[in-house]
Amino acid sequence: MVQQLSDEIVARGKKKRIQDVYLLPKGGQYQVIFRKNNYRNVYQILEIEIAEQLISRFKYLGQMDVGEKRKAQLGACTYLLNEEMQRIRISTVGNYQQQESMVLRFLYPFEKNTLLYFFPEVVQGLQIKTNRRGLYLFGGPVGSGKTTLMYTLARKLGIQVITIEDPVEIEETQFLQLQINQKIKQDYETLIKLSLRHHPDILIIGEIRDQQTAKAAIRAALTGHRVYATIHAKSLLGVRERLVELVQSTEEIQNSLQGIIYQRLLTDEADECVKGLVAYQLVSKESKSAFDWNTQLKRLFEEGRIHEEIYELEKE
């Protein structure tokens, strides 16, 4: 029964292009929740015993410690279903009652990660505007398509690209993709140093999470490389503030940072689909350029493409 249930969840997630599946304890039961972009819906309610068996199955597939329910664990598996494969990242953590929750992140090949934009010309322009050496930061909420945007810009240039991620979320055969592995002491800083020996035209860093990674990214940019990296921040202006908070050296940032690109996903009411909205601030010795967030948002509202409540909520 548990295998049939896991097959069903993976099959539905793959068919619907779900980003995450949550298995969360609530009261005396568990909820199976599907997330795609900013939308979540409860797919199923499970009894505790069945939910625990389901979590154990995915932990086993992800080569995680099935008996450990207290510590947070990370794993990954390639799920074979009907002669097709689905790559899944697995994350578990236990609460104070030793009830585990689980998140399954569905990973898709790059060619299938298509993302529509409200203003496609902005993305096209970024391919030219981000061609200098230095650090380019990509900000936005979780699941807003930051990695897809970095891959899109890098792939169309047709040059040597190295990615460092934890884990690799989008498979791209044209790139040299490296994955963090703490068990063998391959952290961000170690792999960044290693990758620079290969002289990449673009180095993509999955996420700047701490001071160590931030400084390593800046050093890579200062040595004459073009570096794309994601960072979590609440707004376009907040991206630089977050980097300053981590590095605590505005001089290093000033010498390395070439641009900030910020993206969120919104529903286009006119086309009834989710699209990316991109804002940026770019700096070069010759000129400065910017594409303002609030100006675009106002234009979408005036054109009737987003509701007023979305306009008010997303304003910075």
UniProtKB/TrEMBL annotation:
Keyword Glycosyltransferase part of the UniProt annotation: no
User: What's one Pfam family the UniProt record gives for this protein?
Assistant: T2SSE
Q: Which residues form the Bacterial type II secretion system protein E domain?
A: 196-210
Which PROSITE patterns does the annotation name?
A: T2SP_E
Any keyword Chloroplast?
A: no
Swiss-Prot/TrEMBL keywords: ATP-binding, Nucleotide-binding
Domain of life where this protein originates:
Bacteria
- Which is an annotated GO molecular function term of this record? ATP hydrolysis activity
Name the residues that span the membrane: none
Gene Ontology cellular component list = plasma membrane
Query: Which family does the UniProt entry place this protein in?
Result: Belongs to the GSP E family.
What is the official name of this protein in its record? Bacterial type II secretion system protein E domain-containing protein
Q: Native species of this protein?
A: Enterococcus phoeniculicola ATCC BAA-412
Q: What is the lineage of its organism?
A: Bacteria, Bacillati, Bacillota, Bacilli, Lactobacillales
